[in-house]
């Protein structure tokens, strides 16, 4: 049997425009003609269209589909295996994202409800980038520290947040002063500020050993959204994020040295 473009469009659930595009690109061209010269699709064309729609549903591009259909024996199995791995990875990512959404809903239910004015009063210029927060949650999804941090943040009262942000603001003022005055990042003043930041995290969110603090500081340089949670963009200076990371590294080395000295004394 032969079928017009309109009939195939209705049967397959694709638009006429899509079929014309497939025809123009050479992916699927009607193999027959009516006496009046109109293009018609035969049974083999419909079978090919079914294959195209199958691969499209799996996420293959038209170029990839064309390569597969050109030599199915050589391309199809390996291409499908690759796509299967990609789909499994995407399913796992979506499952983690669903868990993030579930926790976010729980935070909204149990967290402190603040009006926009109250949020500005408490957080000032510090804003939480939702895209960064989601990525961070996915990145550290298997971390007990991340789960504890989320739980403790959700349990903070409005007054807790006021105290927390006041403490962070005072620390930020000292950090900016040390940087502006040219204090070395591995000097006592900078290292003490790094230690104060580490203890701030432990006090309000989750236990933050020096190794974890180093990973947090690495994010300050790698992702501006992370450093914006510590120093708002209006107060940042060129090189400040790297300076902070170097201070954190120096402080971590100081901790490692202290542990070595204690171990030697024990012996």
UniProtKB/TrEMBL annotation:
HTH merR-type domain: residues covered: 1-71
Listed Pfam families: MerR_1 (PF13411), TipAS (PF07739)
Region of interest (Disordered), residue spans: 247-267
GO terms assigned for molecular function: DNA binding; DNA-binding transcription factor activity
Residues forming coiled coils: 77-104
Keyword annotations of the record: Activator, Coiled coil, DNA-binding, Transcription, Transcription regulation
Keyword field contains Disulfide bond: no
InterPro entries in the record: DNA-bd_dom_put_sf, MerR-type_HTH_dom, MerR_fam, TipA-like_antibiotic-bd, TipAS_dom
Protein name, per record: DNA-binding transcriptional MerR regulator
């Amino acid at each position: 049997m032969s079928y017009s473009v309109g009939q195939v469009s209705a049967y397959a659930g694709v638009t006429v425009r899509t079929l014309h595009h497939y025809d123009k690109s050479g992916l699927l061209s009607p193999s027959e003609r009516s006496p009046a010269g109109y293009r018609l699709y035969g049974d083999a064309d419909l079978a090919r269209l079914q294959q195209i729609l199958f691969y499209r549903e799996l996420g293959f591009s038209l170029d990839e589909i064309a390569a597969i259909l050109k030599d199915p024996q050589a391309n199809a199995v390996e291409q499908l295996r690759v796509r299967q791995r990609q789909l499994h990875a995407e399913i796992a990512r979506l499952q983690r994202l669903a868990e993030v959404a579930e926790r976010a809903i729980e935070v909204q239910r149990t967290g402190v409800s603040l009006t926009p004015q109250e949020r500005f009063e408490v957080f000032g210029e510090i804003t939480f980038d939702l895209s960064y927060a989601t990525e961070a949650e996915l990145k550290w999804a298997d971390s007990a520290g991340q789960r504890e941090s989320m739980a403790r943040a959700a349990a903070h009262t409005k007054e807790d947040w006021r105290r927390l942000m006041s403490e962070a603001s005072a620390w930020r003022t000292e950090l900016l002063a040390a940087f502006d005055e040219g204090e070395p990042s591995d000097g006592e003043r900078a290292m003490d500020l790094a230690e104060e930041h580490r203890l701030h995290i432990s006090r309000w969110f989750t236990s933050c050993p020096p190794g974890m603090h180093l990973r947090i500081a690495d994010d300050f340089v790698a992702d501006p959204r992370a450093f914006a949670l510590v120093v708002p963009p209006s107060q940042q200076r060129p090189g400040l994020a790297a300076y902070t990371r170097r201070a954190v590294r120096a402080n971590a080395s100081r901790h490692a040295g202290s542990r070595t000295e204690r171990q030697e004394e024990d012996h």
